[in-house]
Here is the input.
Amino acid sequence: MNRHLFEGTRTLIRFILRRDRLRLPIWLVSFISISVIVAIAFAGLYQTNAERLAIAETMQNPAVIAMLGPGYGYGLKNYPIGAITAHEMLLMTAIVVGLMNILLIIRHTRTDEEDGRIEMVRSLPVGRLSNLLSVLVVLTGVNILLALLLGFSLTVLGIEGMGLEGSLLYGSALGASGLIFAGVAAISAQLSSNARSTLGLAFTVLLAAYIIRVIGDLRNETLSWFSPLSWVLRTEVYVNNYWWPILLTVLVALLLMGLALYLNSIRDLGSGFIPSRSGKEKASKTLLSSFGLVFRLQRTGLIVWGIGLLVVGVIYGSLFGELETYFDQIDLMQQMVILVEGFSLTEQFIPLLMSIIAILSTIPVLMSILKVKTEEKNDRLEHLISRAVSRNRLMGSYLTMSILTGFVMLTLSSVGLGVMGNIVMEENLSLGIYYSAAMVYFPAILTMIGIAVLLFGWASKWTGLVWLYLALAFFIVYMGSLFQFEDWVEKLTPFGYIAKFPIEEMNYWSASIMVTLAIILIIVGMIGFNRRDIGR
Amino acid sequence: MTVLRTVDLTKKFGDFAALDKVNIEVDEGEVYGFIGPNGSGKSTTLRVLLGILKATEGRAEIFGKDSWKDAVEIHKRVAYVPGEVSLWPNLTGGEVIDLLVKLRGGNSSHRREELIQKFDLDPSKKCRTYSKGNRQKVALIAALSSDVDLYILDEPTSGLDPLMERTFQEYIIEEKKQGKSILLSSHILSEVEKLCDKVAIIREGKIIETGTLKDLRHLTGTILLVETKEPILDLAGIRGVSGIQPRGNAMSFQVDSGEVAYVISYISQFGIVRIESSPPTLEQLFMRHYEVSDKTTGIGAGGEA
Here is the structure.
């Protein structure tokens, strides 16, 4: 039956598992270890019910709701530790699970198609839909495995308030959101005609799902129903353990996958439903230099990330109004913000938001500088190096672009934050304060660039480490407020040396040290790049 | 005048010697053919010459300058077409051509339109949609519309159709007439034979033969096609004979240059009806080198083995 469509699926499934035999376990192990570590840490931090109720109270503010979704179970006499863990972790983990699914789907669909590998497979006695089906089957398996492994690992910890059913539901919520975004990515791969725009489309859906949920959770609950990310939050894990949201999510995911298969069956190999336009016959003057090229290649990314960070700024800014009201009622924010005399609560809240914004801004900055590695891997640096472009000028172009990116990101997000904040608040701060609070992070971003250049120059295989470092920085900022890390933990990344403007004075001393360090890292990296072979 | 030269050029990747004491020399106004099978070190040599890879030992010079240290200066007068052309998927062919020409520093788009038309390229298409042949055209057009003194071309016609191959050859001949030098790596031997003055054959990172085509042919000997009344006895056993192939009633074989007189006197006892002599083709030269060290392939194992 349907041999012309599905022949060879089983072999392809094995082939995908073989190709990803390291990649998949690494993803799974990372999810499980981080979840387990956080669960243990929370259980240690909030041992008594009183402590748990206190933290629950601090979580009921609009900022947290915007970031993590609404909490639940507050009416309970005994507020379970599971509810805290799930509230803190579920949404963020779901996003990363979604990310994993998107990346894996695209890797095995559009990327393979673009590189001509699917064509080779298709020329064999293999069904038209076998490739997509096998990818979907593998990812469904991965998500189910993730759900089960997570569920059992959390149960095994034996933490009171994190039972078997809740843990399995927690895992299933993550697995289900993974399935949804596998479906989204599979459809995106049919719609657009290349890997890059597929990624863009799928990410846009993921981001939109998050933003719709934010607005919905803050203003209008009906709106939230349009975002799959808020469905999984409705499970109220470890408190009410509702299973129907999982059912809903999985059902929709299966529909999406079915649609993707249908679309795949009616399109030609190598084409998409969104047609690609033809372009200019001649290059405009702005393209005609090595920086011009670098800028042109990253223009779309710059715009997309710019809008993204502007939106993040606006969302955070819109919180200020609600925060004002909220702070008037409750004064239990010690754990999130250090209270300092002489500053308004808004001012004291700015540094926390800015540290998150700065780390988010570093993502496009690092992507920008590391684009040079992608170009090298794809043998395109040769075109420049074999012409009258020196290696220093080449790296200089990438450096300029990444520094520009950092500047644009910090500017847009802080302006978004400031303008929106001033609209919703009675108290008005000058935009300069917001802007400076963002710009103080510039030295830290430069240092991250320096690390990337250093790795690229001397050990370009290991440039991925800089992402791990950034992830660590994010983890410390994000978790720091709740875990109450020792001082030295904060000092592990450059972001820990930044003054908490405006409640602290600008620290010119540490800023200049960081800039000097960044320059040294960049120079040393350049020396390495000037001495090595170019190529894969 | 020497335009390009390598002296004992050695390149190691870890323990593996991709190039082992390579010596080549290209003079002004010369087309230099660089031939060898896949993975023999052709591209590595060219990449060292362009300062993309750093030589482990030995020297590589272009215009008398060090190809690593003075890369940028050198590149102003050099056009390069890589073996595998990878382009930016979201730029159009036209944009890439303009960019690549501009990055050389020169400003010579005078031939751009002519070349685009001759090579039949649609410059408004995104590079993502180009086939291998079309990507190759983009790189060729960018190279040929630059005003340079030296062309370094790495298998420039791979992926081109025969018509385009001819267009390419016409341009190369024209450039040569203008005194430009060309280093052409290829494994399309008929092309090298048609275009090149000098040839170097590389194998496993070592140059095994180099010189003008005439020299090489002389060294290798002559191809004889002989028809005799009686079959020639023990032809394969004669000194200096190799590459025996029956051609209808006649036999074709190669004779080492020093043994021609002896071989002719030997075969004349069988009553020569017809005899034709011709220089060996490059293919015969090439195959001979490879068969010498790989006798298992059978046909025409070389005399000196």
